[in-house]
Design goal:
Strand content: 15-25%
CATH class: Mainly Beta
CATH architecture: Sandwich
Number of strands: 15
Order of helices and strands: HEHHHEEHEEEEEEEEEEEEH
Shape: globular
Radius of gyration: 17 Å
Helix content: 10-25%
Length: about 270
């Protein structure tokens, strides 16, 4: 019997390729997390997503606490079972009245995992709705194989290569409206995208990528992950460093090293936005 999700939610995830919203943090907890993120940005003088790519949690204990939140892991376990690895996490932000958008795409084109079955949790740090450019999904597209992606460079596309699926029937799109502190789950093969932020507030999202140990990396040698629950029964992944607190200097160096290596890998790792 599921620990957090209802059986209907589990079934919808497998049928549609996504499910949500799911409660995680109280409004006060979400606001406190936002303040910590904005403290990091104030120190760096830039958006946290400018540096926290691929493994955003590496140098910050407060983010490790987010990705290993017991209720979140219970929900992950409802989908993938008791052995849980986290191979990555990233931030995706749109400032108020930001023209940035994310074109229709599938993550599996860029992850290089076999089988391609990452479970992504997308946690809203601020409200994510129609006005602020929430994610939208095309139900059932995770069962239709890999779509052809065109690389269409556009200044406001938040995907680095402008990867775009043309001809998407947008009438079928389902918006994922989340309040701050709520999250959604989606499969990496599910087609999704998001529109610009036309609201007066920032839209801040934190995407976290979970897998069971049976999944392996095929295009990036030496890939590592953090075991968060259960056992690594297969040994396909190296072990990520763990921070000794916030601003761990060794982990910051590792964050930059990993981001640079992934940037030069045969295929970019584009997360959700």
């Amino acid at each position: 019997m599921p620990k957090v999700l209802t059986q209907d939610q589990v079934d919808r995830y497998h049928r549609d390729g996504f499910v949500g919203p799911i409660d995680l943090l109280s409004p006060e907890e979400a606001l406190a997390l936002r303040h910590k993120i904005e403290e990091v940005e104030a120190k760096w003088g830039a958006q946290i997503q400018s540096r926290c790519k691929i493994k955003a949690h590496l140098p910050f204990q407060f983010l490790v606490e987010v990705i290993s939140h017991p209720r979140l892991l219970d929900a992950v376990e409802d989908i993938i079972g008791p052995d849980i690895l986290c191979w990555g996490s990233s931030f995706f932000q749109k400032e108020a009245h930001d023209p940035g958008f994310v074109s229709w795409h599938q993550d599996s084109t860029y992850y290089g995992l076999e089988p391609p079955d990452t479970l992504t949790a997308w946690l809203a740090i601020s409200d994510s709705n129609h006005e602020s450019g929430c994610m939208e999904f095309i139900p059932g597209t995770h069962n239709q194989g890999i779509y052809r992606h065109e690389e269409l460079k556009a200044a406001d596309n938040l995907l680095s290569r402008g990867q775009t699926i043309l001809g998407v029937d947008e009438a079928k799109a389902v918006p994922m409206v989340l309040k701050a502190g709520q999250f959604s789950f989606h499969k990496e093969d599910c087609v999704h995208g998001s529109a610009p932020n036309n609201s007066d507030d920032r839209r801040i999202g934190y995407s976290i990528h979970y897998i069971p140990p049976t999944i392996r990396e095929t295009s990036f040698p030496g890939a590592s992950a953090l075991l968060l629950r259960g056992r690594d029964t297969e040994g396909h992944w190296g072990t990520d460093m763990s921070p000794k607190g916030d601003w761990d200097q060794e982990c910051l160096a590792e964050l930059d090293r990993v981001a640079k290596m992934y940037a030069t890998a045969p295929q970019d790792r584009e997360a959700v936005g």
